[in-house]
Amino acid sequence: MKNLKLKSARAALDLSQEELAKRCNVSRQTINAIEKGDYNPTINLCIAICRELHKTLDELFWEED
Amino acid sequence: MDAYNIGKLAGVLTGFVVGIVLVAVIARFANRNKKMKTEYDERQNVIRGMGYKYGFYAVVLYAALQTILAVAGIELPMAPEVLAFSYIFLGVTVTFVYCVLNDAYWGLNNNRRRYLILMGLIMLLNGAGVARAIADGSLIVDGKLSTMGMNLLVTVMFIIMMAVMGIQTLREKAED
Q1: With 0-12 CB in 10 A as exposed, 13-18 as middle and 19+ as buried, what is B75?
Q2: What is the complex's ipTM, to 2 decimals?
Q3: Whole-structure pTM over 0.80, yes or no?
Q4: Searching chain A, which residue's CA lies closest to the CA of residue B43?
């Protein structure tokens, strides 16, 4: 399932996938894969992304019914 | 072991040692942070694990095929050292292709341009050796691929690598 919440949070801060990837010390393709729902990140990476985007884990990664 | 074979062994061993030293130098030169070790993120490490798995399966299947052929008395037309090297060629190529197509080949600290230049150089050096062997007729001896077949395999491997990286670059551009 696509992670549109992550994509919109990143866009809201005017960050490119490349910039977010650098800040989280991962490749751009990894951020792209998370946004597309092709990869489930570890909790460590989820936390790193949340910190950079000033969001909570729930706000970015909790799937609502 | 006669003098010719000792000389041949010394040549091959020298080639391997030079290759290992070159890889170490290349790694330092081609990584942005001057570290020899390439760093990967968590997704890349997972993908690379899968790549090594497929490379391993490919080598096992190839070995099984070789065993069947040997039992049947069928010999592949290549020198023993080329046959042995073909296992490395197959395993590395399968792993490489899988990693590149899943964006897990280039590490976080790699300088792609420098790597590509060095890969191109290695391909050209091996290709030149193959061209020379073709020209003087030493590539195939007694109907079998001679020792120079190893250079041929390395050249083919790098051509495949370059082609797969080109395809992946086009795929990435189309996606963007």
Answers
A1: exposed
A2: 0.90
A3: yes
A4: A30
